[in-house]
Amino acid sequence: MIKKIIISHFNNIAAIIENSKIQELIVINNTYQVNDIYIGTVQKIFTSINAAFVKLNYHDKSGFIHVNDLKYINPRVDLHLRSITDALAIRQKLLVQIIKEPTKSKGPRLTTNIHLSGQYLVLMPFNNKVCVSQKIYDESERVFLRAFGILIKPSNTGILFKDSSRGIKEKVLIEELSSLRKQWDFIEKSSITTICPSLINYNDDLIRKILIDYLDREVDLIVADSVKSLQRLYEYLQLRYDQMYKSQIRLQLYEENTCILEAFRVNSTIFEILKIKIELDSGIYIFIESSEALTIIDVNSGSFNQNLNSYDSILQTNCLAASEIAYQLQVRNINGIIIIDFIDMKTQKDQLKLIDHLSKVLKDDRARPEIVQLSELGLVELTRRRRGQSLKEIFGSSEGTERDKQQDQNSMSVSHQKNLTMAVQDINATFFNKRFRQLLKVRNSMECNVKRHFSPLAHRYIIPLQLYHSMIDNQLAIL
Questions:
Q1: Do residues 332 and 326 touch, judged by C-beta distance below 8 A?
Q2: Are residues 19 and 54 in the same domain?
Q3: Is 257 a member of any domain?
Q4: Do 230 and 251 form a contact (C-beta atoms < 8 A)?
Q5: Are residues 317 and 374 in the same domain?
């Protein structure tokens, strides 16, 4: 299996590709991202639902916080907090973190339980515990990490060892903990001196997000359209990984004049994602309809017809559709409640086989989908954890607006065509209306044996980092 990461520095978009098929898309937005930290003011308090709205800035929607997400506000009331008025008051300043991105009609979900995430560790400033990821199954490794965490953690601060911390050198873990601690010290000082409301800590860095969440030992190749991005990746690999893994992964600068998103079919994939109807090569077609409350998926056999009896043919059709549905959930980043209407099967044995196959194809999904039940009507109900906005929320916002305007008309086909045209215009505005200051013309390292030599790491500590990267770009442009 060949796993690649494609990075478009100019568009702030990356794609995870496995076996020549896009598995996941990473898009960085400008406002209200998960893990952003704000200093806000309490705007409204609703005692009937034990919740409050917190003003985060002067332009966008206010954030929503429930009493269950109020942690470490006041040690005297934290243990017996029943009413939100015991902890909050109107115009009170509040340090909050976004745990759920906004939708079309709702603002972001907030919490006061701040945490700072690195590649191997999560720093919990208000929690005095040492935790180990449940994905680390080796008991001896868990005991070692727990004991090591007790030794290195700052006082009155908790840390969580992520599953990526397995086998990592102690020196690397200590360095990351020190970096997270400095980041928290800066946030503490900023929360005191910054004018309220305002954004204190945010992450619009695509490279950092990839390094923390997506870079693992299964990645074989990283292709980027920016020398600066490759330089940062190279430095990170030199500092954090052993020699065997550094020699395994390859860094490649994209050389063509066309956009990297076109070359790897990322833009065409998004065009397909915005379509409701999916047609498979076998003749099966699937309808995916998403709304604010849930997502409904309908499976139709279409022209699929095997030379088997009807029961085996129906089971095979449903299994093929289940594999495609698992892929669509991941690449579209569909979250929340999902209901799937498969073709009706007569026997309970076939239903169990289908559920078992669906659970297997969902196993590798990072969002950890959970199959709830197979209802009496033959509907499969499952939930998928929210990991940022879905691609439809990001690129297809005009689709829903236009559909609301056209819902009183009789011609659904004309309405759908207009919606698709508007969505395409939105994507074109995102992808193709970019003006590049210069075209990168570098020979393809996959077709020739020319190796790219990066500057020694010692230079980045002598001059400011941004100036250093700009110098590297200019030198390579001259070459």
A1: no
A2: no
A3: yes
A4: yes
A5: yes
pLDDT band of 177, cuts 50, 70, 90: very high
Position 462 pLDDT exceeds 80: no
92, 111, 130 - which closes a domain = 111
pLDDT tens for 17-54 read 888 888 888 888 767 888 889 999 999 999 888 899 99
Whether residues 43 and 22 fall in one domain: no
- Is the distance from CB of 389 to CB of 29 less than 8 angstroms? yes
How many C-beta atoms surround the C-beta of residue 471 within 10 A?
Answer: 13
Residue 23 and residue 3 share a domain:
yes
- How high does pLDDT run on average in the chain? 77
In whole angstroms, give the CA distance from residue 222 to residue 368.
25
Burial category of 396 from C-beta neighbours within 10 Å (exposed 0-12, middle 13-18, buried 19 and up): buried
Domain shared by 284 and 383, yes or no = yes
pLDDT band at residue 178 under the 50/70/90 scheme: very high
Backbone angles phi, psi at 213, to 5 degrees: -105, -25
SS3 136: coil
Say which CATH number the domain at 78 has.
Answer: 2.40.50.140
Q: Do the domain assignments include residue 304? A: yes
Task: Give the pair of three-digit tokens for residue 365.
Answer: 């999904």
Instruction: Please state, in angstroms and rounded to a whole number, the distance separating the CA atoms of residues 451 and 469.
Output: 19
Q: What is the pLDDT of residue 310?
A: 63
Confidence of residue 397 (pLDDT cuts 50, 70, 90): low
* Tens digit of each residue's pLDDT (9 = 90 or more) over 117-135: 888 899 999 888 899 998 8
Peptide bond into 102 cis (omega under 30): no
Distance, in Å, from the CA atom of 390 to the CA atom of 396, rounded to the nearest integer, reads 10
Which tokens in the block code for residue 413? 């086909």
pTM assigned to the model: 0.71
Least confident interval from 221-235, 394-408, 429-443: 429-443
Does residue 461 fall inside a structural domain?
yes
Structural domain boundaries, residue 473: 1-30+204-272+440-479
Domain count within the chain: 3
- C-alpha of 70 from chain center: 25
